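Section 3.1: Structural characterization of target chains.
Under the original work plan, the team committed to producing a structural model for every single-chain target entering the pipeline before any wet-lab resources were allocated. The record below documents one such target. The sequence was received from the expression subgroup and is listed exactly as submitted; it comprises 386 residues.
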Amino acid sequence: MVTITSALALKHGALRMKLPDETMGESADTGPASPPMQELTRQIQTLAEIGELCMEARSLLPAVAQTADQLRRMGTWRTIIPFQMIEGCPHALDPANRDHHELIQHVLHAFGEALSRRHDEHNQPVLSDEETLAEVAALTEAAGVEHTRAIGLLTASTINDLQAGILLLADIATEIEARDVSLLVNCSNYLSMLTDRLYHQGRLEDSNRELSILASRDNLTGLPNRRSLMESLEQMMSAAEDSRGQILLAFIDLDGFKRINDQHGHEAGDMFLISIARRLQQALREDDLVARLGGDEFVVVTTAGGNRNSKDIIRHLGNRIDQAIVGHHDLGSVSIDYPGASIGVVTWRGESINELIRKGDQAMYQIKQRRRGQDGSGNQPLGNKS
């Protein structure tokens, strides 16, 4: 019984197969290799190429298709059909094999529980029993093999999920030898290792993406946080310089927020902040930026054409924000009629990001002082139990 006992090694940045000197090629003592040895050499070279392919692949389906092409060049299998799994059903990658889904499904069913385990000498990827071949005879004939000697199946799977594979059919004239089976075992395991790698890589990228979002978002409201605001302002300033557009920043401080917390509890205070965030998002344009700096401070950034009157734009933006915030807020067991916030709106005049935010803060403070002068109570909101 001939088996492939191969190992992959990295040498000089390239993947190659380690081969015993006494079993390979020609030598001065032995002369040309025998046909069986030439075939073994070809299989080992093919396996090395497939191994390298699976190590370097960045996506699964192209690797499955290329592996199928490599096996076709071997000439052992009459028909080779690469497929992918979509919602639990096999679908051939080549539209020309679209009619063979039922055959693939039958073969998958015939392998049964063996699909959940990696292939090895005890779990071989080949079916050759007469009963199974008789059951799918009509389907294999439709696939181009009138009398089937064996059916091979390479699986690209994680521990719990078959994602793709390759169906192989050998006709009656083909002898399937031990080395052919070993080649399939190794190829199948390479594809499964690739599938595992891509799966874990995908999960890692998803986790990193989620962490990136969390790092740039306010945990309570889901709005961009200070870090994200700074990054967005930098991009907006660069774009405004190119287009000679205007940038307006509104600094918002929620007057009376401490009283809401003190009178109704922090849960009501959190719900109020969430309500403010939602109303600001709904009232402003899709391209406008709404961020929470922290505590009861929010920032709105918007852009306008360079030829528009700055005073009109400032007044209009302030009114839009005020109308969004003022009014009735249902906070669960408590509802409040909120009289409004202090809003300072400024335009960007080429200063740095920190200076622009500081300028907005100062404008907001002036508005707050004016509101306190107008209303000695400080425009505090009233709360009522629902």
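The chain has eleven helices and 14 strands.
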